[in-house]
């Protein structure tokens, strides 16, 4: 991976920080996207002190704020005309609801809409870097979603700590479905897309999930719970292993038992994948989602009002 150009979101702690270390160790140039400049600068200094002559660029953005996403994408494209790997790692589990500046549920905006928009806005440099890869950290939690309305998934609603699990799981299902659709649409550009579950990893995100801290404390010293460094290995493999250079669209799970299970039923509905993709594009203001930004048709972004007559979520 020497001289590859890699973008990593959420690189200031946990799995993201370890992914950044792994990529830097392999000789890649890094663009780190984070919310907190101070923490980002600390990680950048840590990487610079650990690996010889790394190229490290820091970009500050809150992925829940779509204007931040647009701004950081412009900055990355200004510095690099080529991206070899984009790792969508940033995520949150909010135990209480809040609304993003754009009017969406903030957890859905952070975990899905922001990464979805960033990936599209970096499609041109990803095409320049082909064969290139998009690696998204999802979760086995997506299996718990039995129904998904592709028109209202981002609408703010009240929920408590236990209900937050369902919203988190929905955001991870959205990650998986759009990964599958990206792989289908962008294979002709030489861009592959992968989603993964790193297993149960001891990070701040996991500790926010209701009921998990107590269980995690019991399991932390067993093989069931991985360290952040161990949790980063699947993403690093998907990012750099030649085996995954041309074959995309999969959900790769590192949960020992879950790997034996069949795919979640909602993953097997192409019409649902398309509906989620197109609705996500509407919500973030994209028009032609098969085209890269430089080749997209000009026009006013569609309004956010639902139109349930055009696409059905069922086969």
TrEMBL record:
UniProt xrefs under Pfam families: adh_short
Basic and acidic residues bias: where? Answer: 300-315
Keyword field: Oxidoreductase
InterPro entries with a match to the protein in the record: NAD(P)-bd_dom_sf, SDR_fam
Region span, Disordered: 287-315
List membrane-spanning regions. Answer: none
**UniProt superkingdom:** Bacteria
Which SUPFAM superfamilies has this protein been placed in? Answer: NAD(P)-binding Rossmann-fold domains
Descriptive protein name: SDR family NAD(P)-dependent oxidoreductase
Species for this entry: Streptomyces ziwulingensis
């Amino acid at each position: 991976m020497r001289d590859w150009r890699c973008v990593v979101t959420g690189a200031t702690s946990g799995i993201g920080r370890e992914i950044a270390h792994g990529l830097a160790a392999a000789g890649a140039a890094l663009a780190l996207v984070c919310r907190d400049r101070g923490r980002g600068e600390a990680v950048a200094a840590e990487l610079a002190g650990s690996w010889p002559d790394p190229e490290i660029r820091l970009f500050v953005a809150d992925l829940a704020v779509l204007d931040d996403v647009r701004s950081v994408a412009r900055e990355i494209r200004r510095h690099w005309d080529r991206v070899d790997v984009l790792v969508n790692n940033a995520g949150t589990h909010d135990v209480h609801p809040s609304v993003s500046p754009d009017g969406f549920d903030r957890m859905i905006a952070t975990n899905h809409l922001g990464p979805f928009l960033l990936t599209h806005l970096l499609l041109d440099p990803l095409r320049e870097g082909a064969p290139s890869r998009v690696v998204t950290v999802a979760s086995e939690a997506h299996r718990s979603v039995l129904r998904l309305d592709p028109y209202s998934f981002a609408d703010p609603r009240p929920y408590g700590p236990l209900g937050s699990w369902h919203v988190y799981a929905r955001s991870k299902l959205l990650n998986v479905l759009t990964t599958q659709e990206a792989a289908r649409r962008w294979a002709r550009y030489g861009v592959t897309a992968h989603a993964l579950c790193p297993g149960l990893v001891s990070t701040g995100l996991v500790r926010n999930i209701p009921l998990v801290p107590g269980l995690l404390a019991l399991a932390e010293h067993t093989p069931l719970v991985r360290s952040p460094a161990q949790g980063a290995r699947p993403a690093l493999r998907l990012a750099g292993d030649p085996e995954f250079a041309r074959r995309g669209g999969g959900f790769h799970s590192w949960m020992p038992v879950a790997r034996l299970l069949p795919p979640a039923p909602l993953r097997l509905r192409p019409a649902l994948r398309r509906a989620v993709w197109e609705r996500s594009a509407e919500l973030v203001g994209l028009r032609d989602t098969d085209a890269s930004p430089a080749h997209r048709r000009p026009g006013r972004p569609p309004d956010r009002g639902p139109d349930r007559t055009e696409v059905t979520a069922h086969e």
